[in-house]
Amino acid sequence: MSPVAGDVRVDYRLRSRSAAGVGELGDLAVESAQAIARTGLLFEHPGSRDYDPRGQIAEHPDTPERIDAIDGALAAVDWLGWERRVAPMATRAELEAVHDADLVNMIEQLVAGGGGLIDADTHVDAAGYRAARHASGAACAMVRALMAGEAQIAFAALRPSGHHAERSRAMGFCLFNNIAVAAQLAIDQLGVRRVFILDWDVHHGNGTAEIFRRRDDVLYASIHQANTYPHSGPLRDAGSGEGLGYTINLPVPAGSDGERWVSLLEHVVIPAATAFRPELVLISAGYDAHRADPLGGCQLESSDFARMARHVRDLSRRTHAPIGAVLEGGYDPPALAESVIATMRALSEDDAAESIAPDLIYTRQAASYVGHHWELQSARSST
Ligand SMILES: [Zn+2]
Questions:
Q1: Is residue 18 domain-resident?
Q2: What is the number of alpha carbons within 13 Å of residue 55 lying toward its C-beta?
Q3: What CATH number corresponds to the domain at position 75?
């Protein structure tokens, strides 16, 4: 974090506390404000460990062991001092603010019949449905807590993930689009005018992109591997109608490493998001771009997720927008757990975000395209 951004953040907390009637503030209050800025909320639910699709789909990668690994690794570091909260279930009304009622009805009918396949990769039974309702509910509870000022950073570590679920279609392990449900709730009920969603899962978040593609109140930016599932998200797709420019798709070839991902984030995504002036920042935090992942073909290390998180954290502090991360993919449990902790640590600490030179091919090409819609000034020079 730069000294300037740090001063701005503390000052902001002090102002908001004074407005709440705390009164004159001394050194103690400054320390307390800094502690609030660095202590996060972690949302969990035991239902995430109860659902195992391998009973229906052999060798399915979305296993309870993913959550076990995260939980075990976090326990070993005392949850980094974050406050743990049990996630509620999303209500039908919260789901139907984004999804067609027919989708929810179809899933409930499948569950009532004992469960079944939605597509070749996507299965639901009673445990899966319960887990999915809590995964969406966690994202909702997270944005409520963030916008109430209970924390500046939060992580919802539940499964199944959500970013492939479209308005009327469940797919790709996803029943409901957890992050979209939360973003919509923030706009409808919490007075948030602009939500920035960064999706760093190795797969394109076709569901989130579809739900918000005609909207200018949600900026959706995805870095993802090209020519893999779900085969959407080309650079030329920038949204449509009033949402033109508010979708940023940055596909990268298989084999891309952290340098390429961080370069795209630093030089394309963050400057556009800075110009957008978000009031809430959400991360579709998938970890299947990790080099150990059995599904993804990219080469990121756990530390690369921390590098990206630091850039997002600095954006959040500059714009006074809290950050909520929602777990998406990541199918090598040890790499997943290590990367989740790296992300949480980076969000809560003050290590400076590293600035790197733009990737000569992909970043420049992406910047020239996204630059049609956004003035891509360096985030540092604009503060
Ligand atoms: Zn994925």
A1: no
A2: 13
A3: 3.40.800.20
Q: What's the CA-to-centroid distance between 221 and ligand 1, angstroms?
A: 15
Is 248 domain-assigned? yes
Higher pLDDT, 38 or 150: 150
CA of 346 to the centre of ligand 1 (A): 21
CA 331 to chain centre: 17
Q: Residue 228's domain spans which residues?
A: 40-370
Rounded CA gap, 119 and 147, in Å?
A: 36
Question: Does residue 378 lie within any of the structural domains?
Answer: no
Q: State CA 140 to chain mean position distance.
A: 13
Whether residue 180 lies inside any domain: the answer is yes
pLDDT at 214 over 80: yes
Per residue in 311-327, pLDDT (tens digit) is 999 999 999 999 999 99
User: What 3-state DSSP class applies to 236?
Assistant: coil
Summary mean pLDDT of the chain? 91
Of 164, 224, 267, 311, catalytic = 164
Look at strands 41-44 and 83-86 and give their pairing: parallel
For the ranges 15-19, 47-51, 81-85, which has the lowest average pLDDT? 15-19
d(CA 177, CA 179): 6
Q: How many CB atoms lie within 10 A of CB 49?
A: 19
CB 224, CB 252: distance < 8 Å: yes
Work out the angle at residue 135's Cα, subtended by the Cα atoms of residues 283 and 235, and round it to the nearest 5 degrees: 35
Q: Which of 28-32, 53-57, 151-155, 212-216 has the lowest mean pLDDT?
A: 28-32
Q: Cα(25) to centroid of ligand 1, in Å?
A: 46
Q: What is the pLDDT of residues 100-112, one digit of tens each?
A: 999 999 999 999 9
The count of domains in the chain is 1
* Beta-bridge mates of residue 192: none
CA of 7 to the centre of ligand 1 (A): 37
| 290 annotated active-site | no
Task: Give the N- to C-terminal CA distance of the chain in Å, as an integer.
Answer: 12
